[in-house]
Write a structure and sequence with these properties.
single chain, alpha+beta, Alpha-Beta Plaits, four-stranded antiparallel sheet, 4 strands, about 35% strand
Length: about 90
């Protein structure tokens, strides 16, 4: 079941985001084909203010384990994480 994950950054956290970005990309690559989409949410100045991920995992517990190891989560970058089940149509 795919999950849509919307992560909203804390205010003034761009430096923190950039400091752990390389580790974040490596972490995302561990999912290989299960990572359907990932990228930043941008503000009007085209600066990241959050992230969106669509990940196809069997169970919510698998997703929770993945997020616990997430470098952005470990760095306490996010003020909010919203998770929804997602149905891919296209």
């Amino acid at each position: 079941m795919p999950f849509l994950i919307i992560c909203k950054d804390k205010k003034n956290s761009l430096k923190k985001r950039l400091a752990v970005r390389t580790g974040q990309i490596c972490h995302l690559k561990t999912l290989k084909k299960k990572m359907l989409m990932a990228g930043p949410i941008l503000n009007k100045n085209k600066k990241p203010i959050g992230s969106i991920l669509i990940i196809d995992l069997d169970k919510r517990s698998d997703l929770n384990n993945f997020l616990k190891k997430d470098p952005y989560s470990k760095a306490e970058l996010f003020k909010e994480i919203i998770i929804h089940k997602f149905k891919r149509v296209f």
